[in-house]
Give the backbone structure.
Amino acid sequence: MKRKWILPFPLSPTKGIFWKFSITEKDPNNAWRPTKGRDSIKVNLKISGISRIATIFIAAVLLLAACGTESSSKPTSNSPIDTLLNSPSAPGITDSSILLGSQQPMPGPAAPGNSEIAPAIEAFFKYANARGGVNGRKVSLYYQEDQYNPATTVKVVKQLVQKYNVFALVAGFETTSNQSVESFLTQRQIPDLFVGSGCDCWNSPSSSPLTFGFGPSYATQGLIIGKIIDKKFPKAKVGVIYQDDSFGTAGLLGLRQGLGSNRIVATQSYDSSSLASGLGEQIQALKNAGVNLIVSFSIPEATALELIAQNSLGVKITTFTSANSADPLTVGNLINTLSLGKISGSAAVQGIYSLTFLPTLASQNDPWIRLFTKIHAEYDSSLPLDNYTIYGMSIGYVTLEALLHSGRNPTRLEIVNWLNKPGSTLMGPGLVPLSYAPNNHQGYSGAQLTLIQNGTSTPLGPIYKINVNGKMNVTHSYELPPPKSLLS
């Protein structure tokens, strides 16, 4: 006589998608099979040589487990079905957990603002874990400080891989630091996901097949800023202040492509290790050259010092910055601190132009901003709610989506293979698509101008997208709302 049990269990806790499994005594392989549906994954647990009684016993146990709790529709990571379906598939993955690692620039000149990113990622993971995690696994992030020093990065990353056996690195900060460990990670086949650097070097899948950027490249940001200035301020005398490394030089290169070299009347650079002396000389030199519009490719502390120098010289020069260089709260607080309270930070940052590729806190009705605000209140309230929080939680979401789509028992190769699919398959809070493809690992492919007004970065004007040929086009927002299950 044929007997059959139908047991509902979640496939994707973040999307509220459910499996139906059946055990039939006449099935020679005693296979679990999912029903049709989005994101369905074929799973066969072949139990060879098992008796009819044992088969019925397993089914009965699972049936009781499914019916024995009022919260069965909100599974936990230790549900019986997860124990059966999940297995350790790679270093850092057990049947109930996924461990990721990261190196962050604390302490050091880049710490202000950027030090909030990893806690924001962690907060998003905790929120998702409370709703079942990824296929019943709880995801955690273990991050260590590298002091914005590549030599320390090597030590930290090797420890994350060799001692703690992380599955992958996520949101590692800065170009040179990541380059210092790239060969080690490639040799060990460790994915380096959503790097906190806009270096064009990440867009080299042939030489860096496991590395993926996140934000628009520095050159892309410079190109967009240049095009906007050319249209919005056609007669401006443009000066540039930039960090003397790949960040600043790439941004300057993109600016020249978008604006034209003849529009730039002066440039000044700085060394991030020498900020204690301020940036008064650089701003004075730009002023002496007749500059009436400054483009800054700087870390937040340098942006603050530039604005302090302007104030000391009695000038207020129109200023554009790259994305995440002028978070209003971070830079405003730095100005208050570095000027010993003599200059109002909130007043100094007013009117600064920047870029964003994510929704901002100015859009309080945006569903992602509502979600991130809720998560911040529950899991990250000891730190500010600002653009860096939005950035970190967006990485948290994209990371979970990538893990979810990499199979029930993901491997390092599977997550890389899935990210190599066209970026349009990985959507969420981004205003523009992620450009991931087999030949492109750069990250988000465009940005929107923002203007600091009343303490927030207010989106201004159209959204710009850079196509594969480097041409900038106006586009619509690609942002998709969060999964409904995350809003509960």
User: Anything to note?
Assistant: Residues 56 and 257 are 70 Å apart (CA to CA). The chain has a mean pLDDT of 84. The first strand starts at residue 4 and ends at 12. The chain has three domains: 4-85, 97-216+363-439, 219-356.
